[in-house]
Design goal:
Layout (H helix, E strand, L loop, with lengths): L1 E5 L2 E3 L5 E8 L8 E6 L6 E7 L4 E4 L7 E6 L4 E6 L8 E8 L18 E2 L5 E5 L2
Parallel strand pairs: 2-11
Antiparallel strand pairs: 1-3, 3-8, 4-5, 4-9, 5-6, 7-8, 9-10, 9-11
């Protein structure tokens, strides 16, 4: 199982980026995939999640309306469209999958997320600065 995030870069406040997460080694369309981020000096946090099994997507309040999660099953790729970026979005972004098909998005934003999601990869750095 591998998840490879890419697409990060440096943008000014108000700018946009689209992150990609290419998956291999498992049935991509059967698993929940979530995006997480870790800012300098802070703990990793979940920001968005998509669960094909449960049929829903979820966002944390701080990114609602600015970040959009989507997937292309034919390409085994997850996307995170990031618009109206702020300096508070500066972080290394990771994608992760649920350990079991039965895991949806109910755990991605909690403190115990690491018990349910993994296969992190190296992450991609997003820097928002003027």
């Amino acid at each position: 199982v591998q998840l490879q995030a890419s697409g990060g870069g440096s943008v000014q406040p108000g700018g946009s980026l689209r992150l990609s997460c290419v998956a291999s080694g498992f049935g991509f369309d059967e698993y929940t995939i979530a995006w997480f981020r870790q800012a300098p000096g802070k703990e990793r946090e979940g920001v968005a999640c998509d669960s094909p099994g449960a049929g829903h997507t979820r966002y944390v309040d701080s990114v609602l309306g600015r970040l959009t999660i989507s997937r292309d099953n034919s390409r085994k790729t997850m996307y995170l469209q990031m618009d109206n970026l702020t300096p508070g979005d500066t972080a290394v972004y990771y994608c992760a999958k649920g350990f079991r098909q039965s895991i949806g998005c109910q755990y991605y934003s909690g403190k115990g997320y690491y018990r349910y999601y993994g296969y992190w990869g190296q992450g991609t750095l997003v820097t928002v600065s003027s």
